[in-house]
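From the thread on structure requests for the teaching lab: each student submitted one protein with a one-line request. Submission from student K.M.:

"Model F-box associated domain from Macleaya cordata, tokens only."
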Amino acid sequence: MGLDIAARFSITKLVRIVGSDSVDKSEVRVHKLGSNSWKRIKFIPYNFFTYGGVIGVLVNGALHWIASRHVEGSEASKVIVSFDIGDEIFHELPLPNGLDDKMEINVGVLGGGLCLLGNLYKVCVDVWVMKDYGVIESWTKLFTIPHHRTCIHYLRPIQSFKYGEILFEVRLLKKGNIALVSYDPNRDEIVKILKIRGCPGSFSKEAYVGSLVSLKSGKYMQ
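Reply posted by the TA:
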């Protein structure tokens, strides 16, 4: 029996990735809103990571995940896998050159572009951004956050602001609780820790962008 490990709304489609009985491939199904069935795409040669609970980010009309690719006769390697919502085709994107292979990595969105966060346990988090989508040479390391700044185990960008501050979701090392932290990379310091009274230690959060376009219309803004 497969395990549902990733599902994500994107405009008018729901993508579901299910781990198969085999350790080296996953099954993909797509549901179009308004229909009554799931379309099975195919089995793909990847296992998908859910480090920190992040299951996919939408950039450039595609969903992105960190996955491992298995090649017979060699160790599994980490890759960024993208799924184009329009043509329903999977692609691989290159990791940055110089990325420490000991880091736990996850993807996010920063300033509208694809970003990658490399976490070296109890040392630091490197934050990279792909300035020219799909081009490996455009990966740029924006900054490094030492762990003593936030005492974090996991970090994900939620929203960047015009004055340079970035709102991050972090998982704290001591208790494992989730917190929201406003970080200023220019000053290399935490501006504030946002506390939500009565909120449980673990919760989900996303940046919300309002729209006058109904999902039921079948139309969306580019």
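TA comment: The chain has one helix and 17 strands. Confidence is low (pLDDT under 50) at residues 1-7.
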